[in-house]
Specification:
By secondary structure, the protein is an alpha+beta fold. The chain has 5 helices and 4 strands, in the order ααββααββα. β3 and β4 form a beta hairpin.
Amino acid sequence: MNVRCLPVAITLLIASVSPMRAEEAFVASKSLTPELALDLARAALGSCRSRGYQVAVAVVDRSGVPQVMLRDRFAGAHTPLTASGKAWTAASFKTSTTELNAISQPGMMQSGIRNLPGAVIIAGGLIVEAGGSLVGAVGVSGAPGGDADEACARAGIEAIRDKLEF
């Protein structure tokens, strides 16, 4: 190192480890309220019902923690766990489970994510965004195919879209 640059390097090092101001020590984030999460889940369930599908719908917060679970009376016993897994997976990877399915096929570089505990990489999990930030995710399970699950999840998000804009 050049000796003339040493004082600058020391100054930069001290500045980088100096204490932060209080406002720099916290991160503000937005999350779905329980009421809005319930509205989303009800709308997704209603969309599936109108198409003749018995499903489960799960809504998680931005960290993947469950907020709402609705299961229609004739939805399969596996659907709550699958819907929750889809929502958690979408929130965790910050992308839809359809997109994750496409990039994680056997032989692809990301195929290993399919083996992660709790990851459910089949269509039907979507992220919920507001103001460009992730605020939650929704997962639907029980319709005849992941594309139908995803359509119901998308309908749920669209039903609350006006409340997401800020």
